[in-house]
Specification:
- It is built from seven helices and two strands.
- The chain is mainly α and about 180 residues long.
- A two-stranded antiparallel sheet has the order 1-2.
- β1 and β2 form a beta hairpin.
């Protein structure tokens, strides 16, 4: 049986407890914003991870190691490395040697990357998708959500037995004894 919108209706009720329902809602919101954000930055010829990498690199005064970029983005180093390789092919970034030895390179913005970051900054100053979505919350609601999300993130990091130095948390990188 199909609904009027053409999608199929579930024939059995999916049973979630309140925790799975909340987690599913968080996932839907994050995924939806991510897709909308991806469409927004695609106008610059980049993906959301590339936009994030450009933002991190712009904040560095020196070449940034892949591991450091990954830590800031809460991503795996191989994921960041693959994105950086694509960005290098696009002329957005350059890999530079930091020290002598193996595996001691860092990443810096190339001229095209600086220009793209400048365009990205213009999007950030305007009515970008994240702002449009989040603006449905009042200041009080935004603060309540921020407090709740920080609690959830802290507990998630406890479950992972790590404490990465993430923006907005003021934590220090360290592996917890487990």
């Amino acid at each position: 049986m199909g609904s009027q919108s053409g999608t199929r209706q579930l024939t059995r009720q999916v049973i979630f407890d309140k925790f799975y329902e909340l987690w599913t809602l968080l996932h839907y919101v994050e995924t939806g914003i991510q897709k909308a954000r991806d469409s927004e930055v695609r106008t610059l010829g980049i993906s959301t991870i590339q936009a994030a990498i450009l933002t991190v690199l712009n904040s560095y005064n020196e070449p940034a190691p892949i591991a450091e970029i990954a830590r800031w983005l809460f991503r795996e180093p191989h994921t960041v490395s693959e994105a950086v390789s694509r960005m290098k092919k696009q002329g957005l970034v350059k890999r530079v040697k930091v020290k002598r030895g193996r595996g001691t390179s860092g990443v810096v913005l190339a001229k095209k990357g600086e220009e793209t970051f400048s365009q990205l900054s213009e999007i950030h100053r305007g009515e970008h998708v994240v702002k449009r979505v989040m603006s449905v919350l009042s200041d009080k609601e935004s603060e309540q959500v921020r407090i709740c999300l920080k609690k959830l993130l802290s507990r998630t990091l406890d479950e992972l037995a790590v404490r990465p130095d993430l923006p907005f948390l003021g934590t220090k990188s360290q592996k917890r004894p487990g």
